[in-house]
Amino acid sequence: MTWHDYKMDGAVLKATHEMTLWHMERGLLEISMNTLATSITLNDRRRGYVFHGRSKLILDAIVETEEGAVGRSIEKQLVGPFLMLGDTEKIEANLAEASKEDFREMGYENQEEFLAKAEELCDRFLKKGSRGHERAEGDSGLIFAFQEESGELSVLVAGGSKLVYAAKDLTFVSEGEKAVLKTRGEVVCSSNGKCIVIRNDRSVIVRR
């Protein structure tokens, strides 16, 4: 699959009510009523959306050890447009035509301005080789790309019990009882109650 060939739908819709786009034990992502949405198609098939609204991301990027928790809980308001790739069937039924007031509410003068921002995000993530989008080739799971205030992109990939979150200063991977957390100061690997910490000074600590 070549994502360079994606197309923007060109129509802008809005959420008719609050929706949960992703949810598992470690976190969730919600969008509010009236969130703007425009779809992404590939080979004449709808493959995802770009959203902009009062959205919220919660993520438990924590590894538990006998000496305490390592990592942090992430809870953030998504203030700019973000991209979602994956199953769109449930979303489609909960969208309606957006109005001029909806664009103004999100800080856009018109529909064209929102579409330009949406395409800019897609170009950056899908055409320029940003991390994570190659995982979109399958039909299972979800991929999200968020533009941070710093301009950096953070990526969330989730499917079944698997979770990958990659941001500028933190990478977190988990599946079942296994987890890996990478920060600027250390890498923590946890599996079935055992934990190894590798610090930047190359010291290794084994915790049980």
Description:
The protein is elongated, with a radius of gyration of 18 Å. With 208 residues, it is mainly beta. 13% of the residues lie in helices and 51% in strands. The strands form two sheets. Strands 1, 2, 5, 6, 9, 10, 11, 12, 13, 14, 15, 16, 17 and 18 form a 14-stranded antiparallel beta sheet that branches. Strands 3-4-7-8 form a four-stranded antiparallel beta sheet, with no helix packed on it. It has helices spanning 89-92, 100-105, 111-127; strands spanning 7-8, 13-15, 19-24, 27-31, 36-42, 45-52, 55-65, 68-78, 82-85, 95-97, 142-147, 153-159, 162-166, 170-175, 178-183, 186-191, 194-199, 204-207. A hairpin with a 3-residue loop joins β13 and β14 (170-175). The termini are far apart. The protein has one domain (3-168). Residues 130-139 have low confidence and may be disordered. It has three helices and 18 strands.
Shape label: elongated
Q: Give the topology string: H per helix, E per strand.
A: EEEEEEEEEHEHHEEEEEEEE
Q: Helix share of residues?
A: 10-25%
End-to-end gap: 43 Å
Rg, nearest Å: 18 Å
Q: Indicate the mean pLDDT.
A: 86
Number of helices: 3
Structural class: mainly beta
- Work out the strand percent: over 45%
Q: What's the number of extended β-strand segments?
A: 18
Unreliable stretches (pLDDT < 50, length at least 5) are 130-139
Profile the largest sheet. 14 strands, antiparallel
